[in-house]
Amino acid sequence: MGLVLNHPELFNDIGDVVRMFDPCPVTLTQDRTGRVLIHEVKKEEDRWRQRAELWEEGKLTAYEEREDPIPGGRPLIQKRIFRRAAKLCVYDLMRKATGKTLPWGSLTGVRPGKLFRDLAGQEGPEGAERILRETYDVSPAKIGLLRRIYSEQKPFLDSTDVRDVDVYIGVPFCRTRCVYCSFAAYAGVKEDLKTRYVDTLLREMEGVWQPLGDRLRVRSVYVGGGTPTALPVRELRRILQKAHALFDPMPEFTVEAGRPDTLNPEVFAMLKGEGVDRICINPQTMNPKTLQIIGREYGEGEIERAFDEARKAGFSWINMDVIAGLPGETAEDFEKTLARIRQLAPENLTVHTLAIKRASELKERLREYALAPVTEVERMLELSCETADALSMEPYYLYRQKYMTGNLENVGWGKKGSYCVYNIDTMEELTSNLAFGAGAITKRYFKKDNRIERAPNVRNLGDYFSRTDEMIDRKIKLFDPSVDIEGGRTYND
């Protein structure tokens, strides 16, 4: 579909709305022939007037008109409201043209919980529910989910301080690369390169923390990837020991153990001995056929074996990840995975909906895979809610991704008292985040303006090795007390 816009800066926002109704390629154009959506905004003295039209081969098939008052306040706030109004106009047009209703209504953002919280701060939780229902067309089920998450998160978010920072330590290595993966992760890497990576990572961590540590307070530390346990035990131990040397006291220390083919009693003993209190053992699926399809080489029963070894090592906080909508899977297959997870009874369960990322093998070879229809994936999410209820879990964080099946969501469930603070802080973006390693993204939160500035690390390993000092300098400058620039800072990789 072609998009004809008199405000081209809205292309990504409007394109996201169009793709929710029709997953077609969209292009910015001035050609009004063929299949075209025309969106025009006129700014008058105190309001924006919009008109959106949908044309098919020279015939007007639907249109929508809307006007919104221009609010007072800073230009950054006006820009956000302008974008939101444009998306609502196009959403109403597409709903009218297609007759479709969407569970998340007109919301395209990654973090709908942030909108709920902002609205609740202005109108109270009941007012937030009303606005999401009447203005954004969000379904009652999704509004109810947001309300539950808001209640669970509130004590954690109310306790944040401007000095607080969460620490992410990235290890971009895996045994094999899953077909759906788009992360900066490398498979089949030799041990000498892994050692060089750890050397560089430790230098980056120390180089940043020495000038900043006195002004910051660590709220959580999360070692993720990739698969951190794909490192030799001695190298992962070096990372954990450096984390203690720099960041203690750490109220929460998590390692994403991930795949069972990287786990054994020696690994669990080392993690426990180095003070790790939370781990993730992530099956994604418990169906052997699907494991082969997605590129995981371990066999049936390996997840249970790893889980049992973790319990014997003394881990009482374990998270497990599953993905709804994996190639070839039905709701019945997904239910079998959930049944085995219920038997293991982890403290946390993260339920992802398959997202087809541009950098993944799945995207490149999409025609080779049989994907479940949206109704089947919706049923999978219903089954995951039933499993969470059976395990006495509450939803405590939620996020969405582009190119996600059915425009649905990922939900983190947990037993009360077991919530991962790092996950809450990362998803809600009310706390700064110091991120180390190739491809990691540091974020500084500016409370006054409720905004984030980012300093990304380079993804390529060679660039990371040669540009470490640059990565260190980016973070130090970002956390300079004098930095307060409206609109954010931009770095080029």
From TrEMBL:
Domain Radical SAM core: from-to ranges: 159-394
Enzyme class: oxidoreductase
Any one cellular-component term (Gene Ontology): cytoplasm
CDD domains for this protein: Radical_SAM
GO term, biological process aspect, one: porphyrin-containing compound biosynthetic process
Keywords for the protein's UniProt record, in alphabetical order: Oxidoreductase
Domain of life: Bacteria
Gene Ontology MF term list: 4 iron, 4 sulfur cluster binding; coproporphyrinogen dehydrogenase activity
Record EC number: 1.3.98.3
NCBIfam families registered for this protein in UniProt: rSAM_HemZ
Protein name listed in UniProt: Coproporphyrinogen dehydrogenase HemZ
